[in-house]
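WARN no homologs supplied; continuing
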Amino acid sequence: MKIIDLSLPIDESAFEIHKVDIERISHKAGVEKFNRVIMVKTLLGRIKYLLGLRILKKEDLPEGEFLSLEVVHSPVHIGTHLDYSFHYGSKSEGRPSKSADEIPLEWCYSDGVRLDFRHKRPAEVISAADIESGLKKINYTIKEKDVVLLQTGADKFYGTPRYFSDYPGVDISAIDYLLDRGVKIFGVDTMGIDRPYKFMLREFLEQRKPLYPAHFYGRKREFIHIERLANLEKLPDFGFKVICFPIRIKCTGAAWARVVAVI
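OK structure emitted
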């Protein structure tokens, strides 16, 4: 058995549109953090703390170190994650949208299929015809609950501004093609399923074309998709399992996931 990591990290040093911050409290700084948190709970303890008294000293700990602590301040759309219908709108298919903690786990462990669209340019979309052509090329027929992974190669730009501007989008026709064949989850190695913002915004301002058509289509048809995948070139075309269990965060439109392929 071989396990291939298909995930990108949450990394505060990488170029991102939204602010990401990871507060890192070291083992040595943890000693002072412990004293501050515990002692300031009471007025007397606060006074003692300000006077320089400490209930815990580094000499009380092995190697003078306490426990480390990292606090992550990040949108749920940073790092590899699953989007569900609440992200797309308050309703989907006429019913209240579902949040990421409601994703059925049985859909998150299934057979995987990889389709290579690295020839697609950033201003283009992956259409139903492209999906069909890609399947014919690898001689595969989609079956119900397959997890279909669309490879563009954009993950190689992660950490740079190009990651947000150099990738193709997914056309509504492609979404219909997959859903009509029983696909519950599909994934992309891009930061989103719609084309880059610069193309959408220009066409909206000049021609009033809709923004985020693929995302908003989730209001009409319920679907789940994975964004920010990586390393899809390490996969065979099919013959592997995808595991993409979302982190259980209450009432969010997306949730982080450590997505892996098992061969």
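The chain has two domains: 3-10+75-262, 21-72.
OK
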